[in-house]
Write a structure and sequence with these properties.
NAD, single chain, FMN, NADH Oxidase, two-stranded antiparallel ribbon, YdjA-like, binds flavin mononucleotide, Nitroreductase, alpha+beta, oxidoreductase, 4-stranded antiparallel β-sheet
């Protein structure tokens, strides 16, 4: 496999929608998780927690998500027949991807700020994981939908909305098809360079 550097990995990684059926080797996954855990995190909380759904559990997990979509009204406009079709499509989707990873963290109960820091750290972990995986030819898709706030869904995956915060679901597997990059805007319009006291005063006026 060709060696790629971090810039190649950042620029080359794409969100993957279409996956090969084979699972990622268990030890490779563990080693990617261990490396991703070098993400910055305040007070060394290492707040990331994961549930990895694979094999038969994929369908069960997918169906919990679809039940949540229905509860949240996301499939409201479908006829009974179309809803059944949609269920079968979701079954195929969840079963076609080897691993679905649910990322979550424990809440600190401290009026929020520590939770925000922990949330940010888990996002850094996820991006580390995406890039490390890409380097090994593995694709991912980061999803974060309203389902993650649905208390019934949270309970259905064995967690508690009071004690835990769900952060993302990441689909993982070898890509079948890699989409083209849509590029990014130049950063010029998003940066202010502050160099003198007067620049600073002006902007704070
Ligand atoms: C917090 C977050 C949530 C996302 N949710 C979704 C999603 O629900 N569905 C989806 O197809 N992609 C989702 N994505 C992936 C983005 O659509 C994708 O990163 C973006 O289109 C850029 O494409 P690229 O990752 O190939 O560069 C999400 C990404 C992030 C960071």
């Amino acid at each position: 496999m060709r060696k790629i550097n971090i810039r190649d990995s950042i620029l080359g990684r794409r969100t993957i929608f279409d996956y090969k059926p084979e699972k990622i080797d268990h030890n490779l996954l563990i080693s990617l998780f261990n490396d991703a855990a070098y993400a910055p995190n305040h007070h060394m909380k290492e707040p990331w927690k994961l549930k990895v759904y694979q094999d038969e559990a994929r369908l069960v997990f997918g169906r919990k998500i679809v039940e949540s979509y229905i509860r949240l009204g996301l499939l409201n406009n479908l006829s009974k027949e179309d809803l059944e079709k949609a269920r079968r499509k979701y079954d195929r989707f969840f079963y076609s991807i080897p691993h679905h990873i649910l990322f979550y963290m424990d809440k600190e109960n401290d009026a929020g700020y520590q939770d925000d820091e922990n949330y940010a750290a888990v996002c850094a972990f996820i991006q580390n994981f995406q890039l490390l995986a890409w380097e090994k030819g593995i694709g991912t898709m980061w999803t974060a939908k309203p389902v993650l706030l649905d208390e019934i869904f949270i309970k259905a995956v064995g967690l508690s909305a009071e004690k835990q915060r769900l952060i993302a679901v990441l689909q993982v597997g070898y890509p079948n098809k890699i989409p083209r990059s849509r590029g990014r805007k130049r950063m010029d319009d998003s940066i202010e360079w502050i160099q003198s006291q007067s620049d600073n005063d002006e902007r704070n006026a």
